[in-house]
Amino acid sequence: MRITLDPGHGQFGNPGAIAGYYEGTRVFMLAHALKAELEKYENTEVFITRKDITDNPSLASRGGAAVKNGSELFISLHSNAASNPAAHGVSVFRSVKRPESESLGRLLGDAVVNAMKRQTEITYLRGVMTRTESFDGTVQDYYGVLRSSVKSDAVKYSFIIEHGFHTNLTECDYMFSDKNLLEMAETEAKVIAAYFNLRKKDEKPADYIEYTVKPGDTLTSIAREYGTTWMALAEYNELPDPDLIIDGQIIKIPVYDEIGVGDTVKIKDGVGTYYPGGNPFSGWVHDYYYAVSRTCDSNGEPVRRNGDRCVLLGNKINKKSGAHGSSINSWASVNYLEKIK
Ligand SMILES: [Zn+2]
Description:
Blueprint: E1 2-7, H1 23-38, E2 45-48, H2 59-68, E3 73-80, E4 90-94, H3 102-117, E5 125-129, E6 132-135, E7 138-141, H4 144-149, E8 157-165, H5 169-175, H6 178-195, E9 207-212, H7 219-225, H8 230-236, E10 250-255, E11 264-267, H9 283-288, E12 289-295, E13 297-298, E14 301-302, E15 304-305, E16 308-318, E17 324-333, E18 337-339
Parallel strand pairs: 1-2, 1-3, 3-8, 4-5
Antiparallel strand pairs: 4-8, 6-7, 9-10, 11-12, 11-18, 12-16, 13-14, 15-16, 16-17
């Protein structure tokens, strides 16, 4: 199934009760962690409206993304705000056009409540609500992301989830922890998987290398260096708290079947650009050709585009005839490629 996740706002959107908390940054991290969790299930393709933390698309294009990529489920992730710092709790909004999504909305809301209630004052779900307004003489969703997401019948479930109030000190504190975001992502993914009967993929056995933590390192900085994510490292190392790593600690970096120079690679299905935020490629590049990886670095340094390690795609190879053709000559993210041989 296809799912679109929409982390609300932009990078510095909506500061919270604690210095350094921005709703737009925290929900970005939560959405990417949820994507990683959902992709552990078979036949699950997850699109995200903000690939880079600085992205801040219009409301219409966020909901429109679900329509465009044919998603069955759309979730816009937020934390709530109020002028009264005592205001608290979890709310789910569903599209007024999708009454049948009420039960999934309740399951998701209850799961968020259960995750947050151990560390906050939250005790129950405020509700699965609708908010409407009259547009062009008809009753429609008040929220632009919901309104734009249900323009296709294919989008059967459309939600906004408010993960507590960032204007409430304890709820802001909860959402400010990476560890809590990982747990929240896992919890929400389990609810979605159970509802849609998704099966877990077999985990790939992975080799690893050992990295010794140096002063100033964070899990994010180590992940960036090795072309992976802090979520993947936290999970692989079973870190109880990803915010807490200490000098001299050994972090295992999983090594999957790495793409090297001279390998034949294929661009993965469903990928539309060479690397995150990069140029889209013509369909024939994916449909008719493999490519030979020509180099993996520049002046001895690994090449990265928007955080992803890249290889330079050289000669193309016709999938049917095996004939070699001219060079594609573009850097491509290793995460977007599959090694053929
Ligand atoms: Zn919001």
